[in-house]
Design goal:
α3 packs parallel to α4. The chain has a single domain, classed as RbsD-like domain (RbsD-like fold, 3-Layer(aba) Sandwich), CATH 3.40.1650. Helix content is about 30%, strand content about 20%. The protein is of the alpha/beta class. The radius of gyration is 14 Å and the shape is globular. It has a 6-stranded mixed β-sheet.
């Protein structure tokens, strides 16, 4: 046991977060995301059954957002014509605001295939059990000030 580490953070994820440097990205992927095929050059960690929101909260307790990029957080945008609701985006914004006040403007949107490309360049993809559609999120790590 370690003090101050959220219990949802498993040892493999703690190691990955520790290894990541400034500008490296981590993807928290929903259950629909093709983590293994997109993450061919990334570390892929399985968090089956786990929703993303509490994991996002725990990760943001441990790493800062990149302050040198316009969009340190990226969400997968809806496919044109898709009318599915995305209340999870608002919950993500609340979590981000709790840990990094005023950084909501730094949330960018990427078209589905552009998101896959960006995710493929990430250091790690965490494959979760999140059931919400369009719940995928990329977080770019910053430096501690």
């Amino acid at each position: 046991m370690l003090k101050g580490i959220p219990p949802i953070i498993q040892p493999d994820l703690l190691k990955i977060l520790s290894e990541m440097g400034h500008g490296d990205a981590i993807v928290l992927a929903d259950a629909h995301f093709p983590a293994e095929s997109v993450g061919v050059r990334s570390h892929v960690i399985r968090y089956d059954g786990q929703p993303i929101e509490p994991l996002l909260d725990a990760v943001l307790q441990l790493i800062p957002l990149d302050q040198y990029t316009e969009h340190p957080v990226l969400l997968m945008d809806k496919v044109p014509g898709d009318t599915v609701d995305t209340p999870i985006w608002d919950r993500y914004r609340q979590v981000i605001d709790r840990h990094e006040p005023g950084k909501q403007a730094g949330i960018g949107m990427l078209e589905r295939f552009a998101f896959y490309e960006e995710a493929g360049r990430s250091y790690c993809i965490v494959a979760t059990g999140e059931q919400s559609q369009y719940a995928n999120i990329i977080i770019r790590k910053g430096v501690i000030r």
